[in-house]
């Protein structure tokens, strides 16, 4: 009997050690994941949008403003919808990661309306979008029981189609008056590459930040890594092919090279295999480059959607692709392949509650629900933002920092360089 | 008896596991903390100061030089003053974090004299300031027993008022001869935003880098996070309000948005609560923006303090605010609220050595001591730096890289400036 | 007997805990190491090369392309040569770090031919260099049993001399036709500093990423940290000394300040001591600055090696220095000094298989082998790249993005600003 007691005590000891250890290890890994996602939100998204020649202050500055606001609002909204414990919202690393995810979605929508909205409009959009994001996330992950760790559906598809719908409602027929500013200059493209590279490097952390620790998390990170690598090669190759003289286009490199991360957002934690991930990444890069080249002009001319950053090509189509890949991979899941990992990835299949094929159907329904809420939400939000009370810029002064920022002198102008500006140009700018 | 032996052995086993585990876990977390602080020192401070149009090389280059020097000197000085073990200085992650903190203080002072000092002057200033920092830190933390994990007093208040006093002594009545260079250009402001965003993102790590691991560290990080978020919103709002036509000012965004991190440097690890942190952050952003708008011109004209980066607004006032918030929060500490955490935050109150109210007094005295040493030290240092032997720049060539750096040609000058390109050149290029 | 059983069980418990814990802790640290190295490869190398005024797109863009490709190819090649387990290649954090190391070597070679090669040439070079890297690594680390955790030999020496030999074979006698573009402009130098600072900050992680966890890893990181700090001071001092009027040269700061990390790549994990590391760092900075000032022009004129980034000064000579320091330090290893750590650093000396002096000889032979494979491999690769089928740029359009990228309009050209500068103003600036 004393021996039994001893065994029991030894057991308790080790167990406690293991548990506290697990908690702390989880913590350490989670902190790293949070930090990486945080860098993606503030540096990645912020600088990715600095490509416009005269909208760098607004890109990085409004990104900063929206993110700082949305983080707090998302903590509240996600807490209300699915994080209440005895009437209190628990905050911690996991809630901070989820708030970053929600913020990412808002920043994707920001990309669609970049240069054409006032900060007040953006804040109003954030209020509505964060709320709907939390509702959609609750329906998809909790009610429908779908899996979407990296957010192909809940973050990318939702953010993209929400933003595209807002852009549709806010359509500006005379936007070509600001056309000469809706493009990059040499150094603005280099600033944007800072954003691209940070997003690319930390995407494996993004997709795996809230997966189960251990094997599951590693698999997600590796799948994302291989998908991105293949996507990048596809992007460079195709960018040279579709150009008229074999030259590379910075727009493709900055954006399409990231589509591989979007497209494994759902299936990344599943048994996609490295080779499968590379195929998905290759496909994502391909549709993204083709989208920029052929689809974006059509969207603008036929559907009247002025998508400044091309979020349809980076987040929209690759997000839908990712949702479909996720549904198919889920439907094909077997206990032979997943082994003990099944409990982490598909607890409902493990417990025998659902068949794998039904999990696939759940995933497909979740995509439809996400699209529905995003499009409807964007439509309503668009009409709310159309009210003439937010100080939106006129068609002639879009893509221009000067309307919302005190601008410094021109490059080198104080350095005894004279800035010759025609009077009516200057007038417009200071208007 | 064998069973007791077994219990004892099992206990030993688990204990060792726990201890080594704790050491390693501490290590892992501490490494992350160190890395984040390191990025803040080199990228954050370095690029934050690149906002000047012709002083980018010096900002990031001298920042690099001073930091590389001060790190080593601080390791020695902090070792001499409070890190000796049997006649040897122990180095490790904790000493590296502390050296980074000390370096941060020197870089804050650098901000006050930016553009008006030679590298030799900066190195001499570092030698003195690092030494006084170590002495002040020893008095505040060890002799007086105050708490200041994030350095509202020891780092920010000390660095700011030291630098302001140096700037006062080095007052240049004819600085307006270089006035046209004491401002930003478009791209230099974007480089500065890289510094701002990195400082903002990693500030929670800064404030929590040397707190007790576990709950204490989490609380500190969360308090800092919420303070920064609220501060950012306050900064944007107030920046638009104080401007003459509702436009945002980059100077405010780059600096005041960070004041929330400074202001919870002392109280961050205390039971400030998320809501309390947000109030502090809101206040910090407010006084910082108002400082830039109304106080800085007065400081320059009446007190003859030419504060290039406005460190009084970002580090000085928010640092003092943080010290006061810390003193009040400490004085209000009760065992009911802190529970077991009291041992981590206020070991002297836990052990019954002091009352909470007395801890508050200690904190207040520490602020006074810090201000005293900083101002006196800055005064003496200023006079030492005034000796005409360091190659300081003349009033006409301040804020100018050209005096210390071999400068490359102008933007595009080699590219046949103003882009005059002969037709066949252009043809070749497009071939 | 029950008690024995209990002991045994308690032992098993703790053992499992310890093992799983060790694995996880290793994991957590390894992940941090991987992330840091990853940032160095994509941001560090990518932006370090953006110093050229009209080659920023290619520098960061081709760096991205080559790295994304080489990572995958290196995983395969390193797997084939020394990572097969039962016919399968195991992938994981360690293989990802090793692939990053191999990629680093390719990017060093890229630095030697920067601006003079087409993307196709670079991809062909990557295919060959990655393969030879894996072979050389296998010979040096496994066959010869040398130690080279930070890759002074296998990464830096190999990459530099491989690239220099390629540059020699691809010698362009008429390159001075593009001479006016082979230099920096103000903002391109600031972009390059982003690369420099990131490389500098994370180099301790680079050198210690694959060392044994615990003491060994800490020692490596600390040695690298002190070497870099001393190297930076040496670089600033010497840069001012060798300049004609005491001005600092950005080329030295951007490159030579990093030589201290290269030079402790082999000896960093050995008992080099902080003071020893600082001497090595000081030497590395010195030879690197002197190399840029005096040796590079000779290499170009006499040996016909056009080394665009000066990789001979940053990676070549410091790499050889690091190999020699490693050989000497290894030869001097005694059990008195290393204690239990001997098993981690020199397992063969610990087990009595070899004498310390013989380990030194192994290290020296490894340097010779590395140089041989690099030079021969570079020679062959150079001739393969000389085939006129890769679309290499003509001599007149080297260092020019326009040949491979669709370029945006000029800075400010859309803003219709004209830059007029009076002659005496320009004079003042260049004074």
Automatic annotation (TrEMBL), chains A, B, C:
InterPro entries: Ammonium/urea_transptr, NH4_transpt_AmtB-like_dom, RhesusRHD. One of its GO terms (biological process) is ammonium homeostasis. Residues 19-389 form the Ammonium transporter AmtB-like domain. One of its GO terms (molecular function) is ammonium channel activity. It is found in: Cell membrane. The chain crosses the membrane at residues 39-57, 64-84, 96-115, 122-146, 152-171, 183-203, 223-243, 255-272, 278-295, 364-385. Keywords: Ammonia transport, Cell membrane, Glycoprotein, Membrane, Transmembrane, Transmembrane helix, Transport. Its main location: membrane. The keyword Nucleotide-binding does not apply. Belongs to the ammonium transporter (TC 2.A.49) family. Rh subfamily. This is Ammonium transporter Rh type B. The lineage of its organism: Eukaryota, Metazoa, Chordata, Craniata, Vertebrata.
